[in-house]
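Q: Could you fold this chain for me?
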Amino acid sequence: MKYLDEYRDAKAAQALIQKIKSTSKKSWVIMEICGGQTHTILKYGIEELLPTNITLVHGPGCPVCVTPLEMIDKAIAIASLKDVIFTSYGDMLRVPGSKSDLLNVKANGGDVRMVYSPLDALKISELNPDKKVVFFSVGFETTAPPNAMAVVEAQRRKLNNFSILCAHVLVPPAIEALLSSRESRIQAFLAAGHVCTVMGYSEYIPISKEYNTPIVVTGFEPVDILQGILMAVQQLEESRCEVENQYSRSVRLEGNPIAKKLLTETFDIVDRKWRGIGTIPQSGYRLKEKYSSFDAEKIFNVEYITKEESPLCIAGEVLQGLKKPTECSAFGTLCKPESPLGAPMVSTEGACAAYFHYHK
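A: Sure. Below is the predicted structure, expressed as structure tokens.
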């Protein structure tokens, strides 16, 4: 545990908190873009330890939370078919669609299976040649490479009964969309370290310059988060706007060239709808035409399905950092982890679930 404990060291954390307090003279609003970072902040009480002039707002960096309602309904429509084995990571099974969720499909006889990797879905395809096996391909740039590799491998093995329902979204366009909003009050970002491990952080440099906003690539442990906040505050107080890398033990400017090459060869970048936010241009992946025979949306003809969000859920405002989960009238009453109205209450990385479990 040595290499984990050092990033949870109480003395190091206290030293960083004192440094933040002595450095920050003005009021600042900082958004952590990643749901994993939100979870750490709430679990370890980081918000309560910071000076009152530093406000943290929670961004749309939870892939489960931003997967749009209509994509869940597409998954349900496919999973309900008799000749389909629908596979997914476990956290997607309880995300509510417009009328149901994937667990209800399973309860009603649908063959819905939780897997830990797209390779598990490939194995199921090999073992069930008489079935159509679909993998729910959800996530940011972090999970896209293994899902791309699964498609390439399926083509190599001639597994024509395998496909993916692709709902991948990209972080830089989301940051730019948030900053370009008239309602935005974000003055600095903590960027997601795992995304930048794959993609690097060169894409953030022009965004930082255009919007005069510091961006600090940050890890996920308490000391990581506090150091990222300190670096952001130092830039703000010095009127600097740069991209800095706190997570240097994992992230390089250029990212992972092999993974990036695979993504470029497998996916096209397209406009993508985000739950609670709307369509963000050039913010998602879709399989290239040469892999269209593995595109579940086309195979099962569910591209026509569209749905609007529930007016009772303020997930969109939470994901944009405009409101805190506790400002929702349904929080903790009509909306709980066991009976969620919106995706942020379902996922362990969702801001609403984190507030429900940890916030006092």
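A (continued): The mean pLDDT is 91.
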